[in-house]
Amino acid sequence: MTQHVMVLGGGVIGLSCAFELRRRGFPVTVLEQGRCGGQASGAAAGMLAPYSENTEQPDPFFQLCLQSLNLYPNWQQAVKDVSGLDFEYSATGSLYVHYHEADVLAMRSRQSWQDDYGAASELLDGRRLRELEPHIAPEAAGALYYPGESHVYAPGYVKALEEACRKLGVEIRDGLGEVQVTRWSGGAEVCCPLSGGTFRSDKLVVASGAWAGLMEAALDMRIPVYPIRGQICAYETPDMPVRHMVFCSQGYVVGKRNGSLVCGASEDIAGFETSVTSKGIDRLKSWNGKLFPFLGGMRPFHEWAGLRPATHDGFPLLGASSRSDSLLFAAGHYRNGILLSPVTAHVIADLMEGRETTGLPLGAFAPERF
């Protein structure tokens, strides 16, 4: 008999898990306290950049990110096909800019191990960099170019995921307010005091992002997931002056097809507060004009913040609980939820089917490692 799965959380991770589980034939219910994609998912810049954002070593987290990047071409097309909605998926490649010749050695060191994992990177001098990005600051000495990195328009992607889930028959219950897990072994039960609803299933997938840590008492285990506020701003640039995702040591700039230029991210610890602060946005303004001088005289047309679910070691909680036959985790993806959505969905669906996910050191993400 096919087991029913309840997914706790309607962000990009929860919706992706629901989408893949339903594609494999499982009945699925998604429970969301607010609205789907209303937190970190919809606020993300949508970068798919494991090489640019993992610069030290090919640790298990890098390998997880890389496998997800490789899944993306087929994954995003499947979401579009099922939902009937289009969203931006741009294979622009990325540039990691440096300002000093002394940084070249570090760039070469990064290049040496990343190319073993398919980066196919190119170390550019200043002349070649300006051919690719004519508006880059003259102080930029060069860049490491990653042709295989890409990005999505996060709000459109999450909207399409939700629609794809609905069209496949996933039951989505959002706007529930507080949710309480009242049983998580030998089946699962979740109560929603404000709506008066009670939901039961054979399996429970915890995919509640920054709120996962609030479930420690209910699940009687340590769940060290806590919110980090990420503040982002965007500029109106209808002439698309930036052609690639552009990173530097201070942050990133990425242009979208709708004419917006997204700059991020300024991070701080503010609990579950999602307000935008002048201090946070000023941090972005303090460096982005040095990367692209034309930004120095511009004002953002949009400023926003999202809560990123961080863990103590920077790795997500991904896999089945060793203490319950009914409990799985897909939480704590920090700033990589959009990138990691396909691989997370595949891991959870493989576990539900009793299959082994090959090529990934899943022990590093064990939910009870703390």
Automatic annotation (TrEMBL):
- Key word Oxidoreductase present: yes
Q: Which GO terms describe its molecular function?
A: flavin adenine dinucleotide binding; glycine oxidase activity
- Show the Gene3D superfamilies listed in the entry: D-Amino Acid Oxidase, subunit A, domain 2, FAD/NAD(P)-binding domain
Q: Name one Pfam family in it.
A: DAO
Q: GO cellular component terms? A: cytoplasm
Show the catalytic activity: glycine + O2 + H2O = glyoxylate + H2O2 + NH4(+)
Keyword Nucleotide-binding listed? The answer is: no
Classify the source by domain of life. Bacteria
Q: Where is the signal peptide?
A: none
Pathway, per record: Cofactor biosynthesis; thiamine diphosphate biosynthesis
Q: What InterPro entries would the database entry show? A: FAD-dep_OxRdtase, FAD/NAD-bd_sf, Gly_oxidase_ThiO
The FAD dependent oxidoreductase domain covers which part of the protein? 5-351
Q: What Enzyme Commission number(s) apply to this enzyme?
A: 1.4.3.19
List the GO biological process terms.
thiamine biosynthetic process
Keywords for the protein's UniProt record, in alphabetical order: Oxidoreductase, Thiamine biosynthesis
Q: What is this protein called?
A: glycine oxidase
For this protein, the record's NCBIfam families field holds: thiamin_ThiO
